[in-house]
Amino acid sequence: MGEHHQNPRARLSCLLLLVCHLAHAVPKDLAELDAYIEFKRARDRLPGVAVSIVSDRGMLWCKGYGYENVETLAPMSTASVFCVASIAKSITAAAVLLLEEQGKLAIDRSVNDYLPFRISNPAFPGVAITIEQVLCHTSSISNGPSLWRNYRCGEHPMSLDQWAQAYFLPGGESWDSTGNFEQWAPGEGFQYSNAGYGLLACVVERASGLPFDEYCRTHFFEPLGMPATSFGFSGRDPSAFADMYARGDDWGLERDLAAAGDSVVESPEGERFIRLCHYSSPARGAGDLYSSAADLSRFLMMVLNRGVSDGKQVLAEESIQTMFSPHVDRAFLPGAFVDFGVGGYAMALDNGEAVWGHTGADPGTSTFMLYNADADLGAVVLANRFVDIRDLIPWVFAEGFRSFGDARIVAARPAWASYSDTPGFAAKRRTVTIRVVPPSLPSGDAVYVNGNHRYLGAWVTKGIPLILQADSVWERAFVLPESTMLAFKVTRGSWATQEVSVDGSIPEQRTFIVTADTTLDLSPAGWQDTCASSKP
Fold this sequence. Notes:
Layout: H1 8-22, H2 31-44, E1 48-55, E2 58-69, E3 74-75, E4 82-83, H3 88-101, H4 131-136, E5 152-153, H5 160-168, H6 194-208, H7 212-224, E6 230-231, E7 244-246, H8 251-257, E8 264-266, E9 272-276, E10 279-280, E11 289-291, H9 293-304, E12 308-309, E13 312-313, H10 317-323, E14 339-340, E15 345-348, E16 354-362, E17 365-372, E18 377-383, H11 392-404, H12 409-412, E19 429-436, E20 448-451, E21 464-465, E22 467-468, E23 474-481, E24 485-491, E25 499-500, E26 510-513, E27 518-522, E28 526-527
Parallel strand pairs: 19-27
Antiparallel strand pairs: 1-2, 1-18, 2-3, 4-11, 5-10, 6-11, 7-9, 8-9, 12-13, 14-15, 15-16, 16-17, 17-18, 19-23, 20-21, 20-24, 22-23, 24-26, 25-28
Helix pairs in contact: 2-11, 3-6, 5-6
């Protein structure tokens, strides 16, 4: 164990922690966040998690949990480097907008004005696809069948241009006239498109005259002090990166990426994982970004400072506003999004406020980089296994605001009162006890609640387990801000085992507004998987 603390990343992690502690005379104890992350690691079998919280003043707090390598027990830290998936799209969008600032392109022009080949939706051959549409995922470019098995261990043998021509030109190796494009005209719908962002990387190369990674390194990674960040490996030895893991949830793709040799490893907690290789994809602008929480925090601090880093204007304030402001008709958007911008989108916290930025998910990795400008608060969270980590979003912002937020913000934005414990600004707390008397319970099962608040699981994975009492009632007390609107369901840990009504139908979610200390006594009629007449 001692030797691991001598490696360069571990030393850098210690330095980062010192920087975090020096940012405040009294180091903050985020005990509730610590407890929830450790609970989530155990519940969702996460090898490691790295967290950083920032403001426009700098790094406020950072911490690693678990392991970047479960075999050597090397600890996860905010210096740990691995693939951060679709967070890359924010970098790609920033590169496009910087080129517009430099007068080398205009986002309202057709992508064909900046490509050595011409593309169009075969169902609408006369309708131009603009750069802005590709940035906003309204271009009608879709995620064709070739994309999902296009990862390779090590550096991908196919160049960005080769991939683009194989995907977008009729007769190309990856051409699919119906799979690669939607059946609506450009600008007339919304489809989150990884292929579109791969195409934007081609646009960056042609407009700048530089390889995509070199342009991003020269104009972002080096000026911002992000030495651990690159698209692909850029000549670095990936054996120095943190490991990424799977558990066989998507075995088709994961089998392609299982590390050479004995890829099955066991953690100190007895969890068995499949170690994945460090992989790459030719659709580089959509993902394929290797970075750390510490490096991404530098990018996020630049955003919070309206494009300025260390006194230098890295990206114009107007470009920051373009990236993180609404550009897509909300009628087009899936329910997870509040608004969609250019290389970023808004998601709602459980206090009703929105955070802007990007999440990411790929084999062996789950990530997010998000901020709220009103609260002057941002967060980067990286995990080295593909698991839904969106429940950590409200937790990090709630605990971050409680510990570092300016309570005076509550006067202008009262919703933040639910995240404050400053006298005179904090919302009054009430205790809500949920008691469930199950009709029957298969041996070894437990009762869970899953709902819209972070204390109820934020609708993610299993939710929150209740505690078995001596009288066979399952119960847990939650301390919640007054006026909180709760919506939740009772399950045995999955949507396939949620409660059903007497007639076997799945009931609407339970709702409740917190106005006083209350006990909710619930008696499900049955469970979906054990009720033969169950129906939606």
